[in-house]
Design a protein that fits this description.
seven-stranded parallel sheet, six-stranded parallel sheet, single chain, 13 strands
């Protein structure tokens, strides 16, 4: 079965009438899973998309419901369908069109026409709220809802006074709730007062896709120069100016290049700072990239000095590629990086400590190799995609009984 890129078709709706018996689904037969995520660059969308693709390869039918085709989702792939949420403008709407309502309507439509077994939303607001409405729209039919918390939906968006109460309500209204780290689970309970049980299911990586390279072509830097890398959405929480300052200090000691992957509001300030510090010609701003599995293995070091980080997906992908990570000791990063073994953890505002750790790894080839091997071993053993996808599928199975 091939994917339908864009909105649901009449043919797809007609096919949905051929519903497999519930008993067959309980015996481990393929599931119909709806997934909603933000389609743009960002960890939550990447995880949701890769989860859907893995489920589809197992034989499950996966229906993505979003305003546009999610990043990293191919236009055509077996068992994957895309249902577009169309936002209609109207003069009465003084602000943006009501995404939550349009999304709820589309969720309900897909649930009914595609006989969804479960709806999995990635990010609390507004997706969990839309799922709550969709669940009531399709009643008395069942539509179990799984909500996965990814970070800023709790640490930033969910704590806004205008949204806090609704965020808590929609989380507690979900049938199952998961979080990508223990730190995020604790933050959700502490800051929102959520009483719903929250299961920690971490993010994942495919170590066959994100893998070390035996020979690295000098495409990002001259032969012999060290490559430091950072990848994010360049928001203030990522401290991209700190990345530039770390690199400037390292560059004084060795021939090095800094590769900045991503885009966002703080990118112009980072570019200006690089020029101001005299390292502008040694810093390469690549913008958003869809081939991180090709870029990360070219790095000697990944810098992640975030002021908060619920998990740190790019750190995991770098680890799988055998790249040492130097990151802030915040949020979920200590659950991923073992300090001094599979990477190094530093207080987020300690610029000198970041510089010392960077130079220590870059100047000691033996240490660099040891940390890189340990990082990959940790990624493979604890965060392998197959293991984590099975955990999500177990959650779905528990709701389909």
């Amino acid at each position: 079965m091939t994917a339908r890129p864009l909105r649901s078709t009449v043919k797809a709706k007609a096919k949905a009438k051929q519903k497999p018996p519930a008993a067959a689904k309980r015996r481990g037969k393929p599931l119909n899973v709806g997934i909603t995520c933000y389609p743009t660059f960002g960890g939550s969308g990447i995880v949701a998309t890769e989860l859907g693709r893995r489920l589809a390869r197992r034989g499950d039918q996966v229906h993505f419901i979003s305003t546009s085709l999610p990043y990293r989702l191919p236009t055509f792939e077996r068992n994957i369908f895309f249902h577009e949420v169309v936002l209609e403008s109207y003069p009465l709407f003084q602000h943006a069109p009501p995404l939550a309502l349009a999304l709820a309507t589309k969720m309900a439509e897909v649930a009914e026409t595609q006989d969804l077994d479960v709806l999995h939303v990635h990010y609390a607001m507004p997706f969990a709220a839309s799922a709550f409405l969709a669940k009531h729209l399709v009643a008395p039919a069942r539509l179990p809802v799984v909500t996965t918390l990814h970070g800023t939906d709790i640490t930033i968006v969910g704590q806004q006074p205008a949204l806090l109460r609704m965020t808590k309500f929609t989380i507690e209204s979900s049938d199952r709730v998961t979080a990508v780290s223990e730190a995020l689970r604790t933050a959700t309970i502490d800051t929102l007062g959520v009483h719903k049980p929250i299961e920690v299911i971490p993010n994942f990586v495919d170590p066959e896709i994100f893998a070390p390279r035996r020979h690295r072509p000098p495409v990002l830097a001259p032969a012999g120069a060290r490559v430091l890398m950072h990848a994010s959405n360049f928001r203030p929480v990522k401290n991209v100016e700190t990345v530039v300052r770390i690199f400037a200090a390292v560059h004084e000691r060795m021939d090095a290049r800094l590769v900045m992957v991503g885009d966002g509001p703080d990118k112009p300030r980072a570019e200006e700072l690089a020029r101001h510090l005299g390292v502008g010609k040694h810093v390469l701003f690549l913008g958003n990239q869809e081939v991180m599995e090709e870029l990360l293995p070219l790095a000697d070091l990944l810098l992640l000095p975030s002021s908060t980080e619920s998990f740190g997906l790019v750190a995991l992908e770098a680890m799988a590629a055998g790249v040492p990570v130097i990151a802030s000791r915040v949020g979920g990063l200590p659950e991923l990086v073992t300090d001094g073994v599979s990477g190094f953890l530093v207080e987020p505002n300690d610029l000198d400590a970041f510089v010392r750790a960077s130079l220590r790894v870059l100047e000691d080839d033996r240490l660099h190799r040891r940390v890189g091997r340990a990082a990959r071993a940790r990624a493979v053993s604890d965060f392998h995609v197959d293991r984590v996808v099975e955990r999500y599928r177990a959650v779905y199975g528990g709701l389909c009984r």
